[in-house]
Write a structure and sequence with these properties.
It contains nine helices and 13 strands. A hairpin with a 2-residue loop joins β1 and β2. It is globular, with a radius of gyration of 21 Å. It is an alpha/beta fold.
Amino acid sequence: MTQTVALDQGLVVAAHGRHVVVETPEGERVHCHPRGKKSELVVGDHVRWQATGDGGVIEHLEPRRNLLFRQDEWRTKSFAANLDQLLVLVAGEPVFSESQLTRALVAAREAGIPTLIGLNKTDLPSVVAARARLAPYVAMGSTVIELALKTQPEASKATLAAHLAGRVTLVLGPSGMGKSTLINLLVPQAAAQVGEISVALAAGRHTTTTTTWYWLNEERQGALIDSPGFQEFGLRQIKPEDLAGLMPDYAAALGQCKFHNCSHRHEPNCGVRAAIERGDITPSRQRIYESLYDELSTKKW
């Protein structure tokens, strides 16, 4: 009679290639690797594992509530799983990319993940233009919180705490937006944790390419997930005909088109184009939609 081995529960708190760090319910962190050659594990995954001589082996991945990922022409890159929300950090200086912001929001909406936009560097004059660029997102229901992480750290910390407490939040933001400042402000021991994870993964300097989980308090209630910066945010997993439904301003005008397969670009009697003419959809949002539609149309479904 074969004896069944009881598997331990664990949470993936760091990942680098085929190597992951798993945290036990008691808070112990163990260097593990999946059984087999391929690894699709990401930070935030709940797993079942068993101890080995040099750490542990992952035997089972529990079902995910959600998964945020990006997909370009060549590969799919997962950020994290089982998220409560996504925080996209932007600033007026350097000027943030509205296209990149939209891509992140579309991916999160497709994955069913609530989003939060953090406008940093509100102490600089450039905040006026940044607020104006974010106004359409506020109008379509996005929550925007204002921060000055370097010059007003305590006020910013209080603002963030109100939105992050008790939640698992993935933080995304291009270089220069203040993501590292935010992490270090909320998790003073972040640098030490990165060092420990580097040793555990034997990743050395390559830890800049890892995604890392940070608890927000000793009670392990709420967490931040810091993901590496990226230049492109592909959305190739989305069909062009589904794009409008994932952009709230476009979605609000759906159902009023003459043609059921309307692309909302040139067809007559299009409800979306009527919304554009009324000013309900801004020119910049129209440009982003059309650019994304062209990009997604190049894929053979």
